[in-house]
Amino acid sequence: MILLVVSRNLKLVTVKNSQESLLLRLVPTPIGNIGDISLRAIEALSKADILLCEDTRVTKKLLHILKERYNTELKENQAFIALHSHNEKAFIERLEPSFFEQNIVYVSDAGMPGVSDPGQLLVDYCLRHGIAYDVLPGANAVLSAFVASGFCETKMLFLGFLDHKGKSRSEGLQRALYSGYTTVLYESPHRLEKLLLAIDQEAPQREIFLCKELSKKYQKYFRGTAKKIVAQLNGNFRGEWVVVLQAGDVKKSSAVSENDILALDIPKKVQAKLISKITGENTKEIYQRLL
């Protein structure tokens, strides 16, 4: 029998029967369609002594569905512990290696742990302490959107969510547009229009691909320029979105950005020449774009 004790100083302590050390398993879960759960994932979830969950309510609901739909037999007295981006660092700091001498599973709400979700600090802890771990393959919004885009540059850059606002968001968008790779972003519904308008201003001819509600009932794909897609959406930005940007030319790095130059009260021809200096683009093409 295994007992988990949480002491007053929040240190995790385990009391267990004598058995061989087990390991940590990182288990991906469906991003929308429950049918995407794998047999290995079901087995790992059903045999776990402790489930570390990005949201315990979501994981409990998933296990309930597995039990009802697939007659999954779950281990009795499974413990559920919240492990999310807000408490991950503190959780790792109070861990003891003995915690892993039982079947531990980490599961994020949807998709692959460690991809815009917690999980990497757990793996790092295991590596530093010689603890065995395994990562199960499974549903993943990044790769699904990348393949669905049809863009032929197969070198990919994943940036997750851009910063919410300010200079860091602008710099993140510049990197996404001019990395030289097909670039994948996540975006929330209330910031999607802002992102599309920024792309239209910065790279109006760039092809982009949007996935809405991947693997769910209302899944939709959109491909075209940012301006075209904004018109198609017609103000309806609800849902979970993945944005794929077609690879563009690499810009030369500079402390001065194109927006800095556009903010100067100088003729557009001069602006075009300065922008050409920092980006390597053709001056005439830049001038036409500015017009």
Fold topology:
Blueprint: E1 3-6, E2 12-15, E3 24-27, H1 39-47, E4 50-53, H2 56-70, E5 79-82, H3 88-93, E6 104-107, H4 120-129, E7 133-135, H5 141-149, E8 156-161, H6 166-177, E9 182-187, H7 189-202, E10 208-212, E11 220-224, H8 226-233, E12 241-245, H9 258-262, H10 268-279, H11 283-290
Parallel strand pairs: 3-6, 3-7, 4-5, 4-6, 8-9
Antiparallel strand pairs: 1-2, 9-12, 10-11, 10-12
Helix pairs in contact: 7-8, 10-11
Word description of this protein:
This protein is of the alpha/beta class and 291 residues long. The protein folds into three domains: 3-135, Cobalt-precorrin-4 Transmethylase, domain 1 (3-Layer(aba) Sandwich), CATH 3.40.1010.10; 142-250, Tetrapyrrole methylase, C-terminal domain (Methyltransferase, Cobalt-precorrin-4 Transmethylase, Domain 2); 254-291, no CATH class. Helix content is 37%, strand content 19%. The protein has eleven helices and twelve strands. The protein has helices spanning 39-47, 56-70, 88-93, 120-129, 141-149, 166-177, 189-202, 226-233, 258-262, 268-279, 283-290; strands at 3-6, 12-15, 24-27, 50-53, 79-82, 104-107, 133-135, 156-161, 182-187, 208-212, 220-224, 241-245. The strands form three sheets. It has a five-stranded parallel β-sheet, with helices on one face. Strands 8-9-12-10-11 form a five-stranded mixed β-sheet, sandwiched between helices. Helix 7 (189-202) packs antiparallel against helix 8. The chain is elongated and about 75 Å long.
